[in-house]
Design goal:
- The protein has about 260 residues and is mainly alpha-helical.
- Helices cover about 65% and strands about 0% of the residues.
- The longest helix is centred in the middle third of the chain and has 32 residues, at about 145-175.
- The protein starts with a helix and ends with a helix.
Length: about 260
């Protein structure tokens, strides 16, 4: 009996000595209890997160941890910066004559209905005095009849210029343009009327058939073609040939109806 007890104590003592001398197994960290060999269970301690189920969500580890988000293909840089504010009507009219290219770039996304409608209406009130036949009939009427006639002429000019400018915008879109209707139509109306002011000012005093008036009319018509083509090119991001093609109908109508006064 005593020999059996001594043999068992020696075996137990030897087992504890062998367990104390055990080296850590590679690949397994030391647990909080001081032992090596196996990872702790989910219910005990908070050891290495790779094995505790609280940090790693890879295959074979329970799938209950936190998964790192996938990298986004595009970074969010916040909202796009707003474009420049629209020009005031004075800067717009001045820039259209003196600095057309930066003005068209600046206003390509801004509607210009106010200046376009007012300038076109005022132009229509005076345009009839540049046509010889119309001017003679107007001067022969009374003032009470003249005012309604001029008002109707101004409204008709606004409607006609708006329709022609809309055609220019539609053709530009069909040719691959990406501009908006309101900026294109409004700028086209301004170009159509403002470029004819020098000819109209001479025609009021010299008559529409005067040779000087005719020469100035052709020059201002060419300038209107240049501005329309430039505007459509900037507003719709089109090459010059397509921008000129989109402006062709409005230019022909401007020449036949206003510049030459043949219709």
């Amino acid at each position: 009996m005593a020999g059996h007890r001594r043999h068992r104590d020696a075996r137990d003592h030897g087992g504890r000595r062998e367990h104390g001398d055990t080296q850590p197994m590679p690949g397994f960290p030391e647990s909080r209890s001081g032992g090596y060999g196996y990872p702790p269970q989910h219910g005990g301690g908070h050891g290495d997160d790779r094995y505790s189920g609280h940090g790693y969500d890879g295959p074979g580890y329970g799938g209950h941890g936190h998964r790192e988000p996938d990298p986004a293909p595009y970074e969010d840089h916040g909202p796009a910066e707003p474009g420049p504010p629209p020009l005031g009507w004075k800067e717009l009219l001045r820039g259209l004559v003196l600095r057309p290219d930066p003005t068209f770039w600046h206003m390509r996304d801004h509607a210009v209905w106010g200046p376009a409608l007012i300038v076109t209406f005022l132009y229509g009130l005076v345009a009839v005095f540049g046509l010889d036949s119309a001017r003679d009939s107007i001067l022969a009427t009374t003032l009470s009849s003249l005012i309604p006639y001029l008002l109707v002429t101004g409204v008709a000019m606004v409607i006609g210029a708006l329709l022609l400018s809309t055609v220019t915008h539609s053709l530009a879109r069909q040719l691959g343009g990406n501009g908006h209707w309101a900026p294109t139509a409004g700028l086209a109306m301004l170009i159509m009327t403002m470029t004819d002011v020098p000819r109209l000012a001479l025609a009021v005093f010299l008559g529409g058939a005067d040779i000087i008036v005719q020469i100035v009319g052709w020059l201002t018509w060419l300038y209107a073609g240049f501005l329309l083509t430039l505007m459509v090119s900037r507003s719709h991001e089109l090459p010059w040939p397509r921008a000129l093609g989109a402006s062709a109908i409005q230019l022909i109508a401007l020449l036949m109806l206003v510049k030459l006064g043949t219709l």
